[in-house]
Amino acid sequence: MHTDAATAASADRPGSLLNLEAVVVAFGGLQALGGVDLQVWKGDRLALLGPNGAGKTTLFNVIAGDIKPTTGRVTIKGIDCTELPARFRPRLGVARTYQKTRLFRGLTVEDNLYLAQTGRSGRHLALLRSGVDTEFRTRARAMAETVWLADVVGVTAGDLSHGQQRQLEIGMALVTGPEFVMLDEPASGLSRGERERLVQLLLSLDPDITLLLIEHDMDVALRAAQRVVVMNEGHTVASGTPEEIRVDPLVHAIYLGSEAGLTGAGP
Amino acid sequence: MSPAATASGPARPGGTLRRLLSARNVVVAAATALALLLPLFGSNFFVEFVMTRTMILGIAAATIVFLAAYGGMISLAQYLLAGVAGFMVGNAVVAQDAWSKGLKLGWNPWVAVLFALAVTTFVAFVLGALASRTTGIYFLMITLTYAVIGYYVFGSITPLSGFGGITGIDPPGLFEDHPQRMYLALVVLSVLVYVAFRVLAATPFGLALQGIRDDPVRMASLGFNVSLHRTLAFTLAGFTAGLAGVFNVWWNGQIDPTSISIGPTLDLLIVAVIGGTLSLEGAWLGAFVFVTANNYLRNLPLVDHIGITEARFNTIVGVLVLLIMILSPDGLAGIIDRVRKGLRRLIQQPPGSGAGPAEAATGSSP
Ligand SMILES: Nc1ncnc2c1ncn2[C@@H]1O[C@H](COP(=O)(O)OP(=O)(O)OP(=O)(O)O)[C@@H](O)[C@H]1O
Ligand SMILES: [Mg+2]
Prior knowledge:
The complex is a heterodimer.
Chain A: H1 2-11, E1 16-27, E2 30-41, E3 45-49, H2 56-64, E4 71-76, E5 79-80, E6 94-96, H3 109-121, H4 131-146, H5 162-174, E7 180-184, H6 192-203, E8 210-214, H7 218-224, E9 227-232, E10 235-240, H8 242-247, H9 249-254, H10 261-264
Parallel strand pairs in A: 3-8, 3-9, 6-7, 7-8
Antiparallel strand pairs in A: 1-2, 1-4, 4-5, 9-10
Helix pairs in contact in A: 3-4, 3-5
Chain B: H1 3-7, H2 14-41, H3 44-71, H4 78-93, H5 109-131, H6 136-156, H7 158-161, H8 179-202, H9 204-214, H10 216-221, H11 226-252, H12 262-275, H13 280-296, H14 309-327, H15 331-347, H16 356-361
Magnesium ion binds next to helix 2 of chain A.
């Protein structure tokens, strides 16, 4: 299934969506990213793999504007975003999830999904509800259904189970109607069945949506992605199709060797 | 996939929530009716001193609760902002030929109110903008600094604060010599403030404010201007504190720098803590307890051994706050809420049975 899509994606390359040039991030003496170059094309389904501490989340934070790179350049849709604060990213169609969930724990599922949409619209300073809000509410409930939370739309996010919180996390990124979605370990803490469901959701996304995925679960990552980039100690060390990565000896040595599930993975 | 997983969260259907809110509303409406009828049966002292002061402190404390409950900001600057409004009214209304200090502009009292509120709102906007990048303990420290600086600013700019303060500040004719009218106006204002804050919480602005309380980082990544939002909320709270300040100076008839010093600033925080910083009703409840303690505990036979009245009062309030905080970090409102939930659980022993009777249990509130 994904091979067809992969062929289609490589056949036409409409242009670069994201371009990282020599991105360095240093936390004091520790270099979390040591000069990363990365290009993401529109419609890409890219998985980012790497062992703990490889710098994957740090890379997300740089792209999302949550941290500024020490040196290097971040370009999204041709716009230099290196110095641009995180709050301008949604206007470029960028949405992300967090590895450690960041929800509005005192608000209901529906309010979480509603708020996720208002930031981009400028509606959040409004003191009166309007038709736009009704539309946002409708979309919030529809998204709750998409991420399997229809039964708990009225429940406070802080009261959800861990798995439900992860689902809401994804919903909050998708409900903004993004062009570029970054998911940081969406499958972590999910049961086997929930993971399968997640893969189906990712595969069913609009093909125009560009997806950048961090995932430790090989099965999820290699099935949802058409291209894989492997990171280690702040550097990208390999890239290729899931098939190529599966058999790459270097990748095995630094990361996958310990992953018994690798050979068993596959559609 | 696994419907069990979705259903496993603590079930709280919207119906229960709505019922809970309406029970809350009934209690508030009953308390309001009682407050409005009070002049018919309460003593003059109780209405003019205890309850009038309760309403003033309640409104001011409600601005602390509003910022804390919806914005996650604990502000110590609210009494200062009320004081700014008070000083502005004082400077504006006292007549040139009066035996008093200050600018003595001799303005119409209502014009003075507009002027005072405009200045207070502007000051709140500036202070809010400066503090808007901080949260938690840092926000508290910055606003504490505001309170301290404000005290010294008014203390040192004597043309504004009139050396020992501005005296002879008369309320407008509507309230002059009509303390009961002033009290009723304060009840109405309290209701307006309470309703406005609660309605605001459900608007797009209010929801975004609660989002910022829960996770400012996520809000920024969703495209919100977190600092601006915090600044606007602080400005609104400042304006409302200004309203309390106007009535406060009318009620006192005078204002001096000591009245906005660290003591009263902490008193207002104590009022909010007694009531519970997460519940709007708690502001007025806390104010009532505080003012009652202030007026009546002084004369208790047992405690008059402690010493001079002020120390006696502070000791008792200190013990009271300590007790409440140990029993319930969310103040009296939190205690009431827990009693209500406990009763409901007791009545609802067989799960799934109607919760109707539990509502009656919530009717017990001063
Ligand atoms: N805010 C921070 N301050 C200091 N060091 C940090 C910070 N964030 C990350 N690091 C460090 O940078 C390195 C890369 O961290 P990062 O979170 O990007 O790794 P990761 O690839 O996402 O790992 P994981 O798979 O465990 O999530 C780690 O050594 C981490 O300890
Ligand atoms: Mg990570």
